[in-house]
Amino acid sequence: QVQLVESGGGSVQAGGSLRLSCQASSMNNYCIAWFRQVAGKQREWVSFITTDDYRNDHREYADSVKGRFTISKDNGQDTVVLQMSSLKPEDTATYYCGARWGYCSPGWYDYNYWGQGTQVTVSS
């Protein structure tokens, strides 16, 4: 069992930045991913990062956020951070972190554990 708690959402103008944190009860050997969801739409993958030594901090990003978002982790604090820059109105969504054992996947259905979500609103 892994408990996840997101924080750091808020409202910002286009071009601004926000920093989201995902605090895990334990994340060793789990993939930690960020997804986002707009009401009435499917949960969309944003980024993920591995936490085991074998995969060596492998991280990937959705094309829509590549070059603007950066994912990082602090193993000692069991925290994964999503630094979001150059935000656009289309980034507005509820952001969720998810965890799954082992390898990472961009599919939301592959994740067993979820946080409660944090709202990000970007105004034009």
Task: For this entry, give a set of tags.
single chain, 124 residues, mainly beta, 4-stranded antiparallel beta sheet
Radius of gyration: 13 Å
Query: Total helix count?
Result: 0
**What percent of residues are in strands?**
over 45%
Kindly report the average pLDDT value: 94
- Multimerization status: single chain
- What's the β-strand tally? 11
Q: End-to-end distance, in Å?
A: 40 Å
Helix content: under 10%
Shape: globular
Structural class: mainly beta
Stretches where pLDDT falls below 50 for ≥5 residues?
Answer: none
Query: Describe the biggest sheet?
Result: 7 strands, mixed
Order of helices and strands: EEEEEEEEEEE
Give a description of the structure:
The chain has 124 residues and is mainly β. Helix content is 0%, strand content 49%. It is globular, with a radius of gyration of 13 Å.
How do you describe this structure in short?
With 124 residues, the protein is mainly β. The chain has strands at 4-7, 10-13, 18-24, 30-37, 44-49, 59-61, 69-74, 79-84, 93-101, 113-114, 118-123.
Task: Please render the helix and strand layout as text.
Blueprint: E1 4-7, E2 10-13, E3 18-24, E4 30-37, E5 44-49, E6 59-61, E7 69-74, E8 79-84, E9 93-101, E10 113-114, E11 118-123
Parallel strand pairs: 2-11
Antiparallel strand pairs: 1-3, 3-8, 4-5, 4-9, 5-6, 7-8, 9-10, 9-11
